[in-house]
Amino acid sequence: MEQSPKVHEKKQPFKRWNPRLLLSRYLRLNLSKRDDRNAYYLVAEVFWASFLNAAATFNVAYAIRLGASDRMIGFLSSIPALFAIFLSIPVAQFLQQAKHKKPLLLSSLAVFRAGFIAIALVPWLNFLNIPSGAVVVVVLILFSIMQRPFIVGFAPMMSAVLPPEKQAPVISARMQLMHAVQSGSVFLLGFWLDAVVFPLNYTIMYTVTVLLSIVSIVLIKKIEYDDKPKINVVKTKNIKTTLHSFITVAKNNPRFMRFTTNVFLMDFGMWASIPLFSLYYLNVLNATDGWIGTFSSINNVSNIVGYGLWRPFVNRIGPERLIRYVALLRPLWPLTVALAPNLTFLLFAGAAWGIIVPGLGLCSQSLFLRMLPEDAREEGQALHSTIQNTSMFISPLIGIAIAEAIGIPNALFIFAGVRLLGSLMWTFNPIDREEPESAPAA
Asked: Considering the chain, what percentage of its residues have pLDDT values greater than 70?
């Protein structure tokens, strides 16, 4: 009797290397479940967004090479923060009441990323006799303002779609993937910028990375969650009722407000010193685009290692306790830069610093998602954002003014001390303190 031929299963030699499969296995996700699919999309989208993030590493160098002044570079950090102070609360109210939030977040993100195409074209308009460096700074500021709805709405969306046990793993995986992509991208982009004539090198870099970032927007669109307003949302009619609602959020969530206060004080010295680093590297130490790319690449690789090393400690010790200790390490970087003004040494020091920073980042991001008030996530995000952006607006201007008066190295010493004082707040104003039971509302 003739046997029927065996049907051989079609071999799929590349199935085991499928990125979707590898990522879902790494995060232990069951993609038939909605929460797990959302976690996958949140991690996968950052891969495509990271190419543009890598290009943005060179924004300051681009503006400086086009003639932007030191004060303009300070404005690049402070002016968007000023607008955020006034926009975060009304934007949050708008999102809280919007019929659907996700389309607004995606539109905001798309407009912001389109801004990089705009700055890529600026040098080619020099026949208009415009100050190119100043125009780049203004365009970056304007388009960063357009990103405010996405910034206000993204963390509440993550808090809504991720159960508590998945928050730290997803945040860690996002950061590791982001730094993995950025480490290779900034390294190659740095050499690309050195090898190709200016400004064509920047124009091509920004255009290509914006196109890649479109995939990120598509993946965010696939996230499934209830983005409709709650039935009991009362539409805000005037400033008085708006402020009253935010005061109510603050009074009803004391732990969230202690967390926000601590972050404000801890980060003040950081925001003051951030513009000084770029100015010091480029104008004093004469760093090239290739050095900036190498430095950023090394730092990103270290971040990947750091997030892997810190994640088990965060889960074992708890972010509330661990942040007290890791925050005390924050003054080390400005001290290192001030004491060792050598580009080669800073590459190695940056590698060590890149391992330290993720401990603080993972603690603070995990705590933020846990502390957001469940019944007012957008309002909580806006309140936090308004307070932090007050620091981001004031501190860079103070940093630039002090650096101009006493020199960048001396200013870095001062802000290292400010960082240390702010970091001590996690010990003197702990967020894991027990709260007295509040009286029932009348």
From this structure: 85
**Residue 5 belongs to a domain:** no
Report d(CA 300, CA 303) in Å as an integer: 5
pLDDT digits (tens, 9 = 90+) for 303-350: 888 888 887 887 788 888 888 888 888 888 888 988 888 889 999 998
Residue 366 lies in a domain: yes
Mean pLDDT, the chain, whole residue set:
80
Please identify which residue in the block is written with the tokens 């499934």.
224
Query: Which residue matches tokens 């208009």?
Result: 128
DSSP 329: G
Return the CATH number at 119.
Answer: 1.20.1250.20
Name, in order, each residue with C-beta under 8 angstroms of 363's C-beta and a sequence gap of 6 or more.
314, 319, 322, 323, 326
Host domain of residue 161: 29-222+235-428
- Whether residue 6 is predicted with pLDDT greater than 60 in this model: the reply is no
Cα–chain-centroid distance for residue 276?
19
The tens digit of pLDDT for each residue in 53-81 reads 999 988 888 888 888 877 787 777 778 87
Q: Are 202 and 58 in contact (CB under 8 A)?
A: yes
Task: Report the b/e string of 295-326 with b at 16+ CB within 10 A.
Answer: bbbbbbbbbbebbeebbebbbeeebbebbbbb
Q: What is the 3-state secondary structure (H, E, C) of 415-431?
A: HHHHHHHHHCHHHHCCC
What's the whole-number mean pLDDT along residues 364-373? 78
pTM tops 0.90, yes or no: no
Q: How far apart are CA 93 and CA 379, in angstroms?
A: 7
In a domain, 39, yes or no: yes
Kindly tell me the burial class for residue 430, based on how many C-beta atoms sit within 10 Å of its own C-beta (0-12, 13-18, 19 or more): middle
Q: Are 324 and 430 in contact (CB under 8 A)?
A: yes
Q: How many domains does the chain have?
A: 1
10 Å CB burial of residue 377 (0-12, 13-18, 19+) is buried
The residue among 163, 183, 53, 186 whose CA lies nearest residue 109 is 53
In a domain, 348, yes or no: yes
pLDDT in the model for residue 223: 86
Four-point Cα dihedral 371, 373, 379, 381, nearest 10: 20
Q: Calculate the alpha carbon distances from 36 to 20, 23, 167, 179 in Å.
A: 12, 11, 11, 22
Distance CA 10, CA 27 (A): 28
